[in-house]
Amino acid sequence: MIQTAAVTWTALEPILPELLLIGIGVLLIGCDLFIPRQRQVLPWLTVVGCITALIMVLGARPVTAFAGMFLADGYAMVFKAICLAAVIMTSLISEPFWQTVGTRQGEYYSLLICSLVGMLLMASANDLMVLYLGLELMALPLYALVGLHKRDQRTSEAAVKYFLMGAFASALLLFGMSLLYGLTGTTEISRIAKMIAAMQLAANPALLAALGLLLAGLCFKVAVAPFHLWTPDVYEGAPTLVTALMSIGPKAAGFAIFGRVLFYGLPTLQSHWGPILAVLALLTMAVGNITALCQHSLKRMLAYSSIAHAGYALLGLLAGTEEGLAATLAYLVIYLFMNLGAFAVLILLATPGQCRESLDDCRGLATKHPVVAALMLIFLFSLTGIPPTGGFIGKFYLLKAAFAAGYPLTVVGAVIFSAISAFFYLRVVRLMYMCEADAPGLWQMNVTHGMRAVLGVCLAGVLGLGVFPGSFFGWIVAALAGN
Amino acid sequence: MIPLSWYMALAIILFCIGVCGFLTRRNVIVMFLSIELMLNGVNLNLVALSHFLDSMRGQAFTFFIITVAAAEAAIGLGIAIALYRSRRSVHVDTINLLKG
What we know:
The structure holds 2 protein chains of 2 kinds.
Chain A: H1 16-34, H2 41-59, E1 63-65, E2 70-72, H3 74-92, H4 94-101, H5 107-124, H6 128-146, H7 153-184, H8 189-199, H9 205-222, H10 230-237, H11 240-246, H12 249-265, H13 270-292, H14 298-319, H15 322-349, H16 365-368, H17 370-384, H18 390-404, H19 408-434, H20 449-467, H21 469-481
Antiparallel strand pairs in A: 1-2
Helix pairs in contact in A: 1-2, 1-5, 2-3, 3-5, 3-12, 3-15, 3-21, 5-6, 5-12, 6-7, 6-12, 7-8, 7-9, 7-10, 8-12, 9-12, 10-11, 10-14, 11-15, 13-14, 13-19, 14-15, 14-18, 14-19, 15-17, 15-18, 15-20, 15-21, 17-19, 17-20, 18-19, 18-20
Chain B: H1 4-24, H2 28-53, H3 57-87
């Protein structure tokens, strides 16, 4: 029963990017501790390490490692690229943000890297154990990151809410996993699918209970209604930079395990989870878009908008087809660019001593800073889903996949809620372009090269993917099929 | 020998006590303890299943869960202390700055 095998170093090859990042994370702690005067090294070390890991991930061959526990396939590759890109771009805009806020946090970068390793593990997990470890490795540094700004009352409140909800969701997820293990006798996701088909467990009530618990836990993690209640508070209370990261990286990683468990692990239960997810997706879009209408804080509005976008991204998943999965992946890539762009502009608006997060702070931005206002306009158009931006293409593929899979009512709902969302996104545009500034000369923007690079990449991503979507979508379909 | 169903029933009871505690208690520390109770329900379930299925995976999983729970406790208590320092309370009803 117990087999021993000699350790071969070549077996480590598939996890080299993760190992590199762990090394960088440890190095960052050391640098922060022993050469505190050279702190400008930290962001560069982070960015260089992540870019190296990104190149390694994109160039890797599809392999299965560690007796099927770790899967470096095309599906994982796309999710890893999203998470790595999110962390690279957040660390590029970190320095001006922390200068504005007025604190220097050395541990910030090592926590960021630890969390990133967790996200990469989640994307590659083909075993419930690895999946859980990746999830916790992602979540634990994030709890600390949310509460990083210890003197601000709002961040400790956000951290405690996030922590309690996250731990509760993990416990629900774990109980579902333990039931799944009891029924199938294995924790390997691809073997679970085979065992369920072989033992004809599809109608087993315990399996359905496991599915329910797993769905509840996963919905908590990606903030799908009715499990979204922590999201607006945490996103508003966390430092803006951490919010920007949380709304993209961990969400994408959450979708990675969502897809892995449902699409690869429980495909036989598609008739059960498909309709459930259709209802949840509609509810999420309704809650996200309608509640965003009555927000006065731009940051909280973006938090509700990220809930709504999780609802859109579910549309591809609930279809349960390869095409739907590819649409979800494509949407998450586009969402990375448009959401990070919007958050980067929000970070630009902040001035020392004032967070300037309310909608009124955008008044008259276009007359003072036409370029920044134009960028925000493009990102908001993309979030609404107006052509020729990437947001339109992403939604188009998602709706097409959901319609083809036989959920016309959900598609109609998605279109209606998308139209509703135009109101609150375009309200910001109206404030920027058609209102006078209350007090002139309030913005002293700290535009660094990193910020320029991030805004440029986001703009290129949003417009490029919107104008030439074919080859990009083809790349994702090929990556999914190539495993 | 005690049959598997008894173990699982105990695990489910522990898990449900944890869920009820989390949903009804208003003190952050007690809510956190309830989560630990839920995790212990899961651990019991995994170990019992592992024994009856004659597979080591469940026990390995349990070790990971115990380890992660310890790390989680460290971070959770750290956050609770940060909250107590700024508010002088760890009562959930007083954590109400963020809403809307």
